Amino acid sequence: MTQEPASSALRARAETLSAPLPPLQAHAEQLARALLMGGHGRRQSGMGDEFWQYRPAQAGDPGRAIDWRRSGRSDGHFVREKEWQAAQSVHLWVDLSASMGFSSDKSIPPKSDRSALLAMALSILLMKGGERVALASLGTPPRIGTLQLRRIAEGLSQEGPEDYGAPDTALFLPHARAVFLSDFLGPIEQVEQAVAAASDRGIAGVLYQILDPAEEAFPYQGRTVFTSMSGALSHETLRASDLRSRYLDRLAERKDHLARIAHHAGWRFATHHTDHADLPALLWLYEALEGPR
């Protein structure tokens, strides 16, 4: 008897999670139709009828895309881009580092499982609404369809060797949307730089922090050895309870810093705990992407 691949199992669970959301799906389809039929474009280049901007021509642009009148006024060639009134692009960065594999109890899913499930279910809902989705770790552009869902599921089944992940926005499309799913317990400067770089390209998004309940409450007492998931870092204490107040202060500072990063970039920030239900988390993420740009 063969074992079901992890990516197939993940997609099946994500389908199950997204299935009970017909009103949400209907709302997404209504928004997509409004964009196609009305004048509420997303200010994103594509096949719309309204002029948006000029951009320098790049290798691979067909000659018919060159605006020769605009190019004649300068030394370079320029492409006349139009507003895209069809589908929006959404980039997902999901932290695949070792720290996301933590779970304080067998009855609670690891952070990696919860983040992968939410990312997959969100991808399904977005594509049903006509939007293109990309998983940052795959290094491919946003796409739509069954094959893309399978690619995303396979990508979410991977795990990195490092303790903490760092967002990579290098391939994010300008004026797209982004979702970062992580515990954000690593170097916060990398998160700040990634959000700033994305914001500079007109990308709006969401920082969604996923924590195990033990990481929120710090229930440890007595002699305790704290070891990172990769084993690279270790700290032993005889009185773990003495660390609790300092730890909680640091965690509160970290959350406040993340909230400020999101606020300054026009993004949204929230925290989800893995012992809480997954459906409200999915609803929050989807609605956060519907918010004003």
Which features does this protein show?
9 strands, five-stranded parallel sheet, Rossmann fold, 39% helix, two-stranded antiparallel ribbon, single chain, alpha/beta, 293 residues, 2 domains, 9 helices
Mean residue pLDDT: 76
- Shape-level CATH architecture of the largest domain: 3-Layer(aba) Sandwich
Terminal-residue CA separation: 50 Å
What is the general shape?
globular
What is the name of the CATH class of the largest domain? Alpha Beta
- Tally of DSSP β-strands: 9
| Total number of domains | 2
* Biggest sheet features: 5 strands, parallel
Task: Tell me the strand percentage band.
Answer: 15-25%
What strand order characterises the main sheet? 4-3-5-6-9
CATH topology of the largest domain: Rossmann fold
Computed Rg: 21 Å
Query: Could you name the ranges where pLDDT drops below 50 across 5 or more consecutive residues?
Result: 20-52, 83-87
Compute the number of helices: 9
Question: N-to-C SSE series?
Answer: HHEHEEHEHEHEHEEHEH
The structural class is alpha/beta
Helix amount, in percent? Answer: 25-40%
